[in-house]
Specification:
By secondary structure, this protein is of the alpha/beta class. The protein has seven helices and seven strands, in the order H-H-H-E-E-E-E-H-E-H-E-H-H-E.
């Protein structure tokens, strides 16, 4: 950078002196640590179990890389999906609200790996809970629009293995019924527990940054903030009520 701009680069020692004189520091982002990896470091997990864990992690990461390449080549639609950490409403700094009951707001997000298009489904706990039928409703609604839009015949969904959210009979049956009705191939790929970093995580990080120092009086304010989070390629945001959620029986083909 300095060479391109015709400037003389400082020595590392000078850089550190200036850096410290301004009382600056490097921020190290926190991230959840894998239980198995921590257990191995603490000698609570055997070498055999840890080796199998690492092998599965590497295999699933490599498979995810291959699925991403297929999506970029246009061979299939590939999505990552995850639920953002729960949000509370109202979102205010007033101390009187600290001990008051608040509504939980949920944001289930799907990210197109190839196009980087993002769709967010938001709802509050009075409209729906964290149950399989709710997530199945969101996924099926999303796929109906995407498959028709792209005229795709193959879809890959990458996620963690959270049971009520991604790895259950309700969602599996809903996807199977959709695949049969629309004549498409749908594959689910689960990442290894503790190593589930995905592209969709960057969406949640962007939204968290946008929420900083913001105030919100209603659960729907989160939908507005999500729409504004990425100006160049805005997120598609759907604020849901209970009427759009399918029952578990409707998600079943049995």
């Amino acid at each position: 950078m300095c060479v391109n701009e015709g400037k003389e680069a400082l020595a590392r020692k000078q850089f550190l002196e200036i850096f410290r004189s301004k009382n600056l520091g490097l921020f190290q982002p926190k991230k959840d640590q894998c239980d198995t990896c921590i257990g191995y470091k603490q000698k609570h997990v055997s070498e055999e179990i840890y080796a199998g864990h690492v092998k599965r992690k590497d295999e699933k990461r490599e498979q995810k890389k291959l699925e991403k390449e297929k999506a970029i080549r246009g061979e299939q639609l590939t999505y990552t999906m995850d639920l953002q950490a729960v949000k509370l409403s109202p979102m205010l700094e007033a101390s009187a609200l600290y001990y008051k009951m608040k509504l939980c707001v949920h944001n289930f997000t799907l990210h197109n790996i190839a196009t980087k298009d993002v769709t967010c489904y938001l709802w509050n706990e009075s409209e729906g809970g964290l149950v399989a039928a709710v997530f199945a409703s969101c996924v099926i609604d999303f796929l109906e629009k995407e498959v028709e839009k792209h005229r795709a015949d193959s879809v890959m969904i990458i996620s963690d293995s959270c049971t009520y959210q991604n790895r259950n009979a309700v969602l599996g049956n809903a996807l199977l019924k959709f695949a049969v009705d629309k004549k498409v191939i749908i594959t689910q790929h689960y990442l290894e527990k503790g190593h589930t970093q995905m592209e969709v995580d960057s969406v949640h990080s962007t939204i968290e940054g946008k929420l900083r120092n913001k105030e919100g009086y209603l659960p729907s304010d989160y939908a507005r903030i999500c729409r504004e989070a990425r100006p160049k390629q805005p997120y598609q945001v759907h604020y849901l009520d209970h009427q759009v959620f399918l029952s578990s029986s409707l998600c079943s083909i049995c």
